[in-house]
Amino acid sequence: MASHSSTLFTSPSSFILFSSHRLKSSPNYFTYHFPRSVKRPHFDLRCSVSIEKEVPETERPFTFLRVSDGDQTQSSSYSVRARFEKMIRTAQDKVCEAIEAVEEGPKFKEDVWSRPGGGGGISRILQDGNVWEKAGVNVSVIYGVMPPEAYRAAKAATSEQKPGPIPFFAAGTSSVLHPQNPFAPTLHFNYRYFETDAPKDVPGAPRQWWFGGGTDFTPAYIFEEDVKHFHSV
Amino acid sequence: MASHSSTLLSSPTFAPFSSHRLHYSPNPSTLRFSRPIRNKPNLALRCSVSIEKEVPETERPFTFLRDSDDVTPSSSSSSVRARFETMIRAAQDSVCDAIEAIEGGPKFKEDVWSRPGGGGGISRVLQDGNVFEKAGVNVSVVYGVMPPEAYRAAKGSASDQKPGPVPFFAAGVSSVLHPKNPFAPTLHFNYRYFETDAPKDVPGAPRQWWFGGGTDFTPAYIFEEDVKHFHSIQKQACDKFDPSFYPRFKKWCDDYFYIKHRDERRGLGGIFFDDLNDYDQEMLLSFATECANSVVPAYIPIVEKRKDMEFTEQHKAWQQLRRGRYVEFNLVYDRGTTFGLKTGGRIESILVSLPLSARWEYDHKPEEGTEEWKLLDACINPKEWI
């Protein structure tokens, strides 16, 4: 099977691009105020990808999936989309809990956002902590439509695809963790899943899907036992 | 006359062409050459520009021009190339002298380089001074040959040129000055001259030439008297030549230093122009000279006034955030930086424009009405200061 070489959505922290709205979380929701709306630059990709504007939320929804993608937690046939979303939400929680445990005090600041047509995400940032200079752990779930050229660019497929906009789904978790101490290394990881729907004028056309991700390690000083440990796991 | 749209070599900085590092020592006999630099990356331009490898020098030559371009200063027929080189060398000296005078001790470190076929330059950097965190002032003189496609790309002209490699000459001064005190502003300026020779197989074909340059101002805090002073000096220089220059180049500057992904400017502007050749060449040479000579009176009085002001950690943090924007613009959008990185220029000279440190704080927004907010607002909505 030919490997996918998606250039769009293949960047290590590309999902942050889709969680662009700023939202300050407040411990007391009643004192919460929405920030003045920020003017956003137009998307300037080589091929334009159509995505709705996001809306801030005060609470985390159980799922960011569209109803039609269903969160049938009890069903043995529940979708890869649903299970992948659950996985990345769990990963975010576990990493943030572990970071906060090391921090002993400072907590992540959380921004939650969604889009009316489905999709959304959670950004969590801890800055100027005791141990971490800056730690970010983001998840996002995206529904959009891309023109055929973007799809060909993303998939590097031959132009055997039918013309017509192609609905897509993308979800991922992305994180960079920068410690304060120069002997403690920076970590980056991201894991993402991408899927296309059948174009509307070609019902029943097969879906395309692929996974992407990785974890990498950036120390300023080498402790061989640490590097071996990291690469061994 | 159609304006030039030279994307190659129209960059604000010529730093990419001064790539060898040389430590300057007050005692020449203790001077040692640095270890040779590992091979540069292959040129990866769509059209390759051919430039020889540079050689370090222990002394500043009187001129970096080729003998055929070097005419004695006293001659009334001295070429534009020679006079432009004289001007940028003088600008480098006067700016460095003024900076060292403010520093009261620390001196610039100098690297001199040349190329066997002609051309070369001088890089001067002062780092971790008393007043300046980092100050760089570079001059370079470059001879090269570009294929016709690069020339058309550089000039943006129709393909009515004859095929055949096009020899070119480029010279410029480029500088970024980052003070320590958050109330003292960052300054950037560059002035450059570009000229093509007749191709060898078409002797007598007309030369093409153009000027480019500008001076712009990036404070972290607004002192309106300082911004007005700075812009007034730019306007005075422009008005000596053409009253349409200041409004035109002020706008060009605001448009050029736009950080698209932030929807804000890097700073509070100044003047910027490129590909200028629709005026008399002598007039433009005088204009560039006037602008370069205006740098010291426009900037130094402001630094002297602000360098010792007391500041808090909060002021320093805000300066660092604005330096982060400076980095974003320079690495993502600045044509000089991106051109240099793509053509295998000297990395240290290219990135000397970056500050020593900067800060990226998640979702930082200054509170409305504060001094920080006023600066951000002026970067989002450029003002007419005078």
Distance between the termini of chain B: 31 Å
Kindly report the CATH topology of chain B: oxygen-dependent coproporphyrinogen oxidase
Helicity range of chain B: 25-40%
N-to-C order of helices and strands of chain B = EHEEEHEEEHHEEEHHHHHH
Helix count of chain A? 3
Query: Which geometry of chain B do the CA atoms define?
Result: globular
Q: What's the average pLDDT of chain B? A: 81
Subunit structure (chain A): Homodimer.
Function (chain A): Key enzyme in heme biosynthesis. Catalyzes the oxidative decarboxylation of propionic acid side chains of rings A and B of coproporphyrinogen III.
Pathway (chain A): Porphyrin-containing compound metabolism; protoporphyrin-IX biosynthesis; protoporphyrinogen-IX from coproporphyrinogen-III (O2 route): step 1/1; Porphyrin-containing compound metabolism; chlorophyll biosynthesis
Transit peptide (chain A): 1-48
How does this model look, in words?
With 233 residues, chain A is of the alpha+beta class. In chain A, 18% of the residues lie in helices and 29% in strands. Chain A is built from 3 helices and 7 strands. Chain A has helices spanning 80-103, 148-155, 224-232, and strands at 55-57, 109-114, 120-127, 132-146, 166-179, 186-196, 208-218. The longest helix of chain A has 24 residues, at 80-103. Chain A is globular. The two termini of chain A are 28 Å apart. Chain B has a single domain (55-380), classed as oxygen-dependent coproporphyrinogen oxidase (3-Layer(aba) Sandwich), CATH 3.40.1500.10. In chain B, 33% of the residues lie in helices and 20% in strands. Chain B has an 8-stranded antiparallel sheet with strand order 1-2-3-4-5-6-7-10. Chain B has a two-stranded antiparallel sheet with strand order 8-9. In chain B, helix 1 (80-103) packs parallel to helix 5 (281-293) and helix 3 runs antiparallel to helix 6. The radius of gyration of chain B is 21 Å and the shape is globular. The model of chain B is unreliable at 1-47 (pLDDT under 50). The A-B interface holds A 22, 24, 35-36, 39-41, 44, 109, 111, 125, 127, 134, 136 and B 260-263, 360-363, 365, 368.
